[in-house]
Amino acid sequence: MLEEKLGLLPEEISLDATFKEDLGLDSLDMVELLTIVEAETGAPVEDETALAMTTIGDVIDYLSAHGTGEEA
């Protein structure tokens, strides 16, 4: 998803890669990422939570904890 939607290379993607420092995402990229996360979970992400997601691992943990919005 990160490769396709944000144009990242596979070698750039690791759990501890930070969005701004390591991957160079700007604020518009971060809004797009947040939109993707909200679409996956089917619910809005709280502002405080969104600001705390600084690495790929943070997003994966959030998605794992909140599911994909689909019924089991």
TrEMBL record:
GO terms for cellular component: cytosol; membrane. It comes from Streptomyces scopuliridis RB72. Keywords: Fatty acid biosynthesis, Fatty acid metabolism, Lipid biosynthesis, Lipid metabolism, Phosphopantetheine, Phosphoprotein. GO terms for biological process: lipid A biosynthetic process. One of its GO terms (molecular function) is acyl binding. Gene3D superfamilies: ACP-like. SUPFAM superfamilies: ACP-like (SSF47336). Residues 1-67 form the Carrier domain. PANTHER family: ACYL CARRIER PROTEIN (PTHR20863), CARRIER DOMAIN-CONTAINING PROTEIN (PTHR20863:SF76). This is Carrier domain-containing protein. It holds the Pfam family PP-binding.
